[in-house]
Design goal:
Layout: E1 2-9, H1 15-22, H2 27-35, E2 38-46, E3 51-58, H3 61-66, H4 71-80, E4 95-97
Antiparallel strand pairs: 1-3, 1-4, 2-3
Length: 104
């Protein structure tokens, strides 16, 4: 299992909306995530910086990357684009984080 951590950024006045849109997350998107080997997925929020910290356990990086090609993922990105920093294709601006410590 691969442990993946990454960060994104929500606009300062949009954390309530961001939280609302994730609770509950779309059933179809949850199914795509699970079908692509994503487990134990959490997103945390730092109120001082408006940074979102994501953590997920993956079966493979290849399966994770293929999620971006699904219609439901593209639809989700469009839905989320008004409330967070995104790339031109509406995907969230995201930076992978390097693991420096792990205690199993």
């Amino acid at each position: 299992m691969i442990r993946k951590a990454f960060k994104m950024k929500v606009y300062p006045d949009q954390i309530e909306e961001y939280t609302k849109r994730h609770n509950p997350i779309w059933t179809e998107l949850e199914e795509v995530l699970k079908n692509h080997g994503v487990h134990n997925y959490s997103i945390f929020f730092d109120s001082e910086t408006h940074v979102l910290f994501g953590y997920a356990e993956l079966e493979s990086e290849e399966k994770w990357k293929r999620i971006a090609d699904t219609e439901i993922c593209k639809k989700w990105w469009t839905h989320m684009a008004p409330i967070m920093e995104t790339n031109e294709d509406n995907s969230p601006m995201s930076k992978d984080l390097k693991e420096v410590f792990h205690m199993p």
